[in-house]
Design a protein that fits this description.
globular; 25 helices; 544 residues; alpha/beta; 3-stranded antiparallel sheet; single chain
């Protein structure tokens, strides 16, 4: 084995299943996404998803027939650059099968955990479809290296013993420039933060892969693609580099067609947005009047440098750009990309995150306006990876996950628990006495001949309670200062279990866990995703 890939079969005592818990959780998302996931709305907004093995097999045959006569893999092979098991599965799919896809834009050091959840979802569904239909199905990860979101690509978060820490690139930030064109620059501060999150890494091979991919002269997009391939290809997942000229060439004709039909696409989207809003929901993606769904890259000045900048093509200029644009300069926005993918790949299903699943409600009218196949989407599997010691710490501190979502509640709970028992008892007795005496005062001043109105007594009660609350907060603040070690434990627990009040899947980088528990974690994730995959194939509810 070379440093270019990792051996997922390697195991060690730290890979013991009891050391790391993988639990399936709800995908969540916006009100629209949740409503569609539950089947409340959206039946007419999405391509029908098969609900049995026979329906999936029929759908796969239709998908294959739509690309009959096209050697899609030969044209896209340089963009895949697949090796090993990933290349084998791609070749079988090209010969007589289909692909299951998912994807994500670049994230620093691979980005948040959900990037990997998506990939494992695709692997599990591809395996289940292959098993139940007998047709070769290859899992494909669409690495959106042509994306221009600097903040998403330049920052990641790790959980440390001192709490949540962010790692970020030095910059400068770019605007409208594809991450495949943005150099990483000085990585030392970000790499130091990642090392702090890894702690005593038992699996140095994972960090070797990170260091091989993330070098200063590489671009953000290229480093991301290299790391994804190193960790996913051994599992059989091919990684497509969306910024590669081979893909741009394969999609060029489709994108010019989208430009020529941009007015029809815009009108179809306008109607769908009205339908979504009429159902009481907000569309996931805003439709900008006057702009097509196609990007065009051109050389422009940014500061003291010339950069290749992506800009949406105005509808008014679309026909002209379709005729004159240089090959390889066009790209798709989020609503057009799934339709483009389905036009160049035999995609039987795309595994979507919560936001993606919501915006697929706007994808169908785009495909219909272009006379293209409407891509089928399904919600991906979602999970949380929790270490045994994190659960033990949570039990020791006596904190609920709900208290960790609140930025202050957990600290208040711990501080009260640390308060001197006699002081705490005295404070509680003072509060009870105050309430009793105010109630007695209120009763003695009842009646029409009372010297003061009852609301005066109520105001006094509120004022006294407020002063007592302020005093207790000051006492608790003093306890907090004295109990810094315990509060540090709270910060570490929140970072691992509810960072920023969210699921760790949406915030934390996965590399530290891979470095501590081994790359076999990914295979365990794919196994944990299998019930979800079976539920998608059979149309039944998933069971753990």
């Amino acid at each position: 084995m070379t440093v270019s890939q990792v051996d997922h079969a390697t195991s060690s005592p730290t890979d013991a299943p009891g050391a790391l818990h993988i639990r399936t959780v709800s995908l969540g998302g916006s009100a629209l996404s949740r409503a569609v996931q539950s089947g409340q709305v959206g039946h007419a907004w999405y391509a029908p998803r098969p609900t049995s093995a026979s329906e999936w097999a029929a759908h796969a045959r239709t998908v294959r027939a739509s690309l009959e006569g096209t050697d899609w893999l030969t044209g896209l092979a340089p963009a895949f650059a697949a090796t090993g098991l990933a290349a084998e599965r791609l070749a079988r799919a090209a010969a007589e099968g289909v692909v299951v896809t998912t994807g994500q834009q670049p994230g620093l050091f691979g980005g948040p955990m959900y990037t990997w959840s998506k990939a494992m979802s695709a692997l599990a569904l591809a395996n289940e479809l292959e098993r139940q239909t007998g047709m070769p199905v290859a899992p494909v990860f669409w690495a959106a290296s042509d994306d221009a979101d600097w903040m998403e690509a330049a920052v990641t978060n790790v959980a440390t013993s001192k709490g949540l820490v962010s790692a970020s690139l030095a910059g400068p930030a770019t605007e409208g420039v594809a991450m495949s064109d943005v150099p990483l620059g000085d990585l030392r501060p970000a790499r130091a933060v990642l090392a702090a999150g890894c702690g005593s890494a038992a699996h140095a091979s994972v960090l070797e892969l990170v260091d091989a991919a993330y070098v200063p002269h590489a671009t953000i997009g290229a480093a991301y693609v290299q790391l994804m391939r190193a960790l996913l290809e051994p599992l059989g997942i091919a990684v497509l580099d969306a910024a590669h000229p081979a893909l741009r060439h394969a999609a060029d004709g489709f994108l010019r067609h989208a430009l020529r039909q941009s007015s029809a696409v815009h009108e179809a989207l306008r109607v769908r947005v009205q339908e979504i809003e009429g159902a009481g929901f907000a569309p996931q993606v805003d439709v900008v009047d006057g702009l097509s769904l196609v990007f065009r890259s051109q050389i422009a000045s940014q500061g003291d440098e010339l950069q290749r900048v992506r800009e949406r093509v105005p509808v008014a200029d679309a026909a002209s750009v379709a005729r004159t644009a240089e090959a390889g300069t066009l790209g798709a926005n989020v609503l057009l990309r799934p339709v483009m993918e389905r036009a160049v790949l035999p995609t039987v299903c795309y595994l979507a995150g919560p936001g993606e699943f919501a915006y697929f409600a706007q994808v169908a009218p785009v495909a219909s306006a272009l006379g293209a196949a409407v891509p089928v989407a399904a919600p991906r599997w979602a999970c949380e990876l929790i270490e045994e010691e994190t659960l033990a710490l949570q039990e020791r501190l006596g904190l609920s996950e709900a208290s960790l979502r609140d930025p202050h509640a957990a600290e208040q709970i711990v501080a009260r628990a640390q308060m001197n028992e006699h002081l705490a008892d005295t404070m509680e007795r003072l509060r009870v006495t105050l309430e009793t005496q105010v109630r007695a005062l209120h009763e003695s001043l009842a009646g029409d001949d009372a010297p003061v109105a009852s609301d005066v007594v109520q105001g006094l009660a509120r004022d006294l309670a407020h002063r007592l609350d302020r005093f207790e907060r000051r006492v608790l603040a003093g306890v907090k200062r004295q109990e810094t070690e315990v509060l540090r434990d709270v910060a570490a627990l929140r970072a691992a279990l509810r960072p920023h009040g969210q699921s760790p899947e949406r915030v934390l980088n996965l590399v530290p866990l891979l470095a501590r528990f081994g790359p076999g974690v990914l295979r365990r994730m794919s196994e944990a995703a299998e019930p979800h995959a079976r539920a998608l194939v059979t149309g039944t509810a998933a069971t753990a």
